[in-house]
Every structure is written in structure tokens, then in C-alpha cells.
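B., you asked whether I could sanity-check this one before it goes into the benchmark set. Here's the sequence:
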Amino acid sequence: MTPILTVLICLGLSLDPRTHVQAGPLPKPTLWAEPGSVITQGSPVTLRCQGSLETQEYHLYREKKTALWITRIPQELVKKGQFPIPSITWEHAGRYRCIYGSHTAGRSESSDPLELVVTGAYSKPTLSALPSPVVTSGGNVTIQCDSQVAFDGFILCKEGEDEHPQCLNSHSHARGSSRAIFSVGPVSPSRRWSYRCYAYDSNSPYVWSLPSDLLELLVPGVSKKPSLSVQLGPVMAPGEKLTLQCGSDAGYDRFVLYKEWGRDFLQRPGRQPQAGLSQANFTLGPVSRSYGGQYRCSGAHNLSSEWSAPSDPLDILITGQIRARPSVSVQPGPTVASGENVTLLCQSQGGMHTFLLTKEGAADSPLRLKSKRQSHKYQAEFPMSPVTSAHTGTYRCYGSLSSNPYLLSLPSEPLELVVSGAAETLSQPQNESDSKAGE
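And here's what the prediction gave me:
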């Protein structure tokens, strides 16, 4: 005789005593867990079964393995369909169903299964988005869950607006591996995309690890983009502090800064230094080669989960990452008259794919040209024609390789360019001189 049928006979629900035939089934009950079916080890939980009869008896059972804890529940609670667990352990985990009935109406069908999961049995895995947690609207993203312990099962759960997390199950892709890959999407900017993952052993599928740290995806929207700037210029030496400023006149309450192909992003509340303008400062450092790259920022209002369109990109360049030191020279000479044609020449004995020319004190991005090989040297010519007083200043040259254009060589020795006849140019409109300075 099967265990379930034995229980039913003991309850007096399995057979009609007048006809000795099985009574017709009642509608199946509803089985749920409060506060939820995924519970941290040591926390309380109550399983509840509800049928359609006013006077009824309930029975809760676990599939495949007897649950002795059920037999210790007080009968006054069982009659109400309540099955409390004051402090859950891995021994309570499993797949449960319940039935109900009465001596006159017979027994019900079994409820749909409830999978009671206990978390916290193992150390937490790590969760990451590949290649980046910043995802274009409508795109898909790969999410990877890793564990230092050899597990063969992984669960990815989406958190956020839904009352119950939506979870995906996956297994390690290779024997002996402790990694699982999940594909998520298409994503949209109108809602939050937050995830945690768990690891488990397939021999105990309802006993999970601690949850990973929360991974949030950033999906930029279409509202007005903010601006991104750097206080001391985009060329940084190792060890310096880097401060990036994201600002907007759209009244955003918070800002986020992220690096293209980076593994995370930073959030800051917005402040309003003047009416109609909000901004946030992001101070990073001391910088190292890993800080080199392309950055963007977005803004959002507090009452919305949607981020704005991304700012224009800002390149942060790290010097001293290539041992070679280029040189810089000027033709026809370091002192020229206003209106003359001037060319700055960057050269290097070592191979350089690109040369960059910077002017001291300028916050603009450096001028960048591909190098040409000539007379056993690599060089690039930067024409400035015609020069004005705005071109006066100190210039340096850097080289970079195509394998990582954000890592620069040591700087050249400084070159002082003096433009004489400055009085002739002072009456020019400021925007005109600025535009020529960037040519």
C-alpha cells in the first residue's frame, strides 16, 4: 500500500463506508508559503493549505521523502490548514503538496506542488554581466554565475517590482566546472533589472547557497542626456586623483557614471549649485592603468527607474604606460607672429600607432593623429594655420598603441609656443579663437 493511500485511510477520507468505493474528488486546494517559498536558513515560515469546504481536515506531505516535522504540528493548527516552521533548516526543504476533505464529501485532489527552498547552506557565488552591466534598450545580456565550490546547479532570480522573484535554472556547462551562463533580454529602460544567483548540488536541489551580491543592469533611455567633464583634463598620471563631473539642466536627482566595457557603475545623488542645474562629482583614484578608457554618465529622477540617454563619451588617458618617450618640435620656430602657419611635429624612435598632442591647462580632449613611418622614425604632423594668441602655451606629445589607445607613453619634454603680435588678435570674438585653437 502506498504511503499516501495509507494516510488517507487513517484520515477516513479515501473510501465511502457505505459503498466501499472511492468517493469523487473535491476541487484541489491551494498551497502557499508565508512569507515566501525561498527562505533563509534559521528564519520562520508557515505553509498554508486552503480548500473549498467550511468543515474539513487537512493533510500536508512531502514528495519522495517523509517529513517528520509535520507530525509534530498541533492539531488545532492542522485543522486550520496551518503548518508553521519556527526556524527552517535544510531538513525542511523539499517539494510539498496538500489535500483536504471530510467524512461526508470525501477527499480532494492534491494541490499543485510547492517547492520549499532553504538558502544559506553554502558560501555565496559571484554574479557578473558580460561584457558590461550597461545594456542598450532592446538588447540581450549574458549573466554569469561563478562559485569557488564545485556545484552543478545554479539559480538566477530577478528581483524588483514583482512580489515573487522570477527564477531561471541552469547547470554547469562543463564537467567539474562551477559556472553557469544565463541569457537575459530583451531589456527595456522602463523597469529595473536586478538579479541575484544561488548555487546548489543536484542531489539536494532545494538546498541553496547564500545569495550572490545584487547585480543591477543599467538600461539608458531617451530623455535628455547630461554632460560629462573632467576637472584637470583627461590626461592623468598614475597616482593622481580623477574627478569626473556629470551635470544637466533637466533637474535630475541622481546620476550614474560608467566605463565602457566596465564591470560596474557608480551612483551619486545630484546637487543643485544653481537654479535649474543639477550635478554630481565622481572622485576616483589614485588612478592606475585600469582607469584608462571611455566613460559616460546618465541622470534620473527619484520617482522613476528610467535613466536618461547617455552623455557624450569622455576618454580618460593614463600616461607612463609605454616606456618610449616621443619628442615634439615646431616649424618654423617656437616664436611666431600671429597669422603665420605653424606645424607641431611628434616623433618617436619606437613604434607608435597614434600620437596625441596636449596643451597645458586645456580641458579639451587631446588632438590625435595616426603615425607615419619616415626615415626610420614614427611621426605625425599637427598643423595650426593660421595661429592666434589662443595658441600660445605649453605643448606635450604622447604616443599610444592600437591594442589599448587609452594607455599612453611617457610625455615628451614640454614645448613653449609663443605667438607674437597678440594685440592684433585680442579683438577677435572668443568663440572664433577657441574654434581655431582646436583645429
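One thing to flag: The first helix runs from residue 3 to 11. Otherwise nothing jumped out at me.
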